TrEMBL record:
<keyword id="KW-0560">Oxidoreductase</keyword>
<dbReference type="InterPro" id="IPR008775">
    <property type="entry name" value="Phytyl_CoA_dOase-like"/>
</dbReference>
<dbReference type="Pfam" id="PF05721">
    <property type="entry name" value="PhyH"/>
</dbReference>
<keyword id="KW-0408">Iron</keyword>
<protein>
    <submittedName>
        <fullName>Phytanoyl-CoA dioxygenase family protein</fullName>
    </submittedName>
</protein>
<keyword id="KW-0479">Metal-binding</keyword>
<keyword id="KW-0223">Dioxygenase</keyword>
<dbReference type="GO" id="GO:0051213">
    <property type="term" value="F:dioxygenase activity"/>
</dbReference>
Amino acid sequence: MSVLTAADLDDFTERGYCVLRGAFDERRAAPVRDAVWRRMRDKAGIDRADPRTWPAAYDIQERLDLPEVRACFPDVLARAVEELVGPGRWRGDRDWGFWPVNLAHGADRPPGSVPTEGWHVDGNWFRHTLHAPHQGLLLIGLFSDVPPTGGGTLVAAGSHRRTAHVLARHPEGLGHRELFDLVLAEPLGNVTELTGSAGDVVLAHPFLFHTRGFKHTGPPRFISNTEAGLTAPLRLDRGDGSAHSVLEESIRSALAAPPPSFTDPVRCRF
């Protein structure tokens, strides 16, 4: 039985992401938040009991090799990954990596305003091409509840389609900042805040542009980003009779249509 619905697959292809609700739960998320608080205290003196020590945001750029973290990558999430990238085409690394904690980022900005800075795709460790296997998917795990205006990740829904067109024009590949400059030369739009409950996981296209949202409500926001790297480069023209993955089909679909236009365009930068 499939984990993702037909509507989920359509969302991934058209909007650049879908959401697996309840991949794990608050019972499993709470000890992970405890571990992140401990790590922030050890690294930067950020004391959970003393908000005076809290910065607006803090990023732990490391994997936490702990059993409570590994418990938050269950079989149902692994199956969802394979439904998007194809059976046997995922490296199978079940861990969580980068930990962006939002304590009060943008609290001084007007409610409802959209950040114009920080827009990016992940992957500063490789050269970007249409076929690069390094990231596969961007997985965003919610390790706390994220209410509206609670500092959730913002995505430009459909921006993966523009990224695909840019990369198609540069088969030699692009560096991280080169890609940003070309995609962000025109405004983005369709900005959507990723909200949900602890245990929800966003499965996002590797070409989807996103940034940290402004935080006006709720407790500190805990998420983790990781990649679902592939065993081999993507193949957009399979001549061996094997089926294209949903990820491959999403890129084929993007390239078969004109670059997208956006509602409520916003001039963005990295």
